[in-house]
Amino acid sequence: MGSGRRRRSLGAASVQRIAGKRGKGPEQVWMEETVIPALRQIGYLVYHTWNSQNSEKGFPDLACIPPEGRPDWPVLMLELKVNDNVMTVEQWLWIRALHEKTIFASEARPETFHDLLRQATNGDLT
After folding, report:
1. Burial code of 37-65, b = ≥16 C-beta within 10 A, e = fewer?
2. Which of 85, 114, 117, 126 has the fewest CB atoms within 10 Å around its CB?
């Protein structure tokens, strides 16, 4: 996948320098310059909420789905931190909760939502 050229991973000092020049936080620069391109290069679908201002506090920065044909690869939910930055309580709660669960994905519609909830609480989702 990708252009075939290999991207060099940025070190902490480079991330800090670039972040200052671009007016972005170090996690944002690392994510844009290294993490997302590396994941996409090996085939992951990567989702990032660009502006989480009105989103649930603490939800991970990236949701990464492995490529088709790789059922052995995990879904990755990543909270990105650099330097001395630490996760908030809300971030820890999300990471812990996601780590303990198997992820189910489906379309949800008003007419079938209550059935989906019933199946989920009975452990009947497949």
Report:
1. bebeeeebebebeeeeeeeeebbbbbbbb
2. 126
Q: For residue 125, give every residue at least 6 positions away whose Cβ sits within 8 Å of its Cβ, in sequence order, or none.
A: 104, 106, 116, 119
Q: Rounded distance, CA 97 to CA 99, Å?
A: 6
Rounded distance between C-alpha atoms, residue 3 and residue 50, angstroms:
24
Q: 12-101 adopts what CATH topology?
A: Trna Endonuclease; Chain: A, domain 1 (3.40.1350)
Amino acid at 90: E
pLDDT digits (tens, 9 = 90+) for 51-99: 878 889 999 988 999 999 998 899 999 988 888 888 999 999 999 999 8
C-alpha pair distances (Å), 35 with each of 15, 97, 105, 108, 112: 12, 23, 24, 30, 37
